[in-house]
Sequence to fold (88 residues):
Amino acid sequence: MTVSQAAAFPVPNLKKKPNSPRTLFSASMSVVAGLCALLALIPLFAVLIYVLIKGVGTLSPSLFVQLPPPPLVKGVVLAMRWSGLYLQ
Fold:
C-alpha cells in the first residue's frame, strides 16, 4: 500500500461525544461502581472504629512483652480471646 492509497481511506472522527449512549453508559456505570465501593467501605470502617474504641484500653506495653497467663484463669479476657476461649 502506498501513501496515496492510504490517503484514499476515510479517517474516522475520534473526538469524544458527550451525548453518545456509550459515553453516558460509561459515566453512569463509573458512578455506580464508585457508590458500591463507598457502600462496601462503610462496614469496614465501622468495624475498625469499634475495635479501636473497645480495644485501645486493653493495649499496654506489658501486653507485648509478657507471656500470656495459663489457661482457665478467671479475669483474663484478652489472652483467652486469642486462644478461642472467652472466660470471665
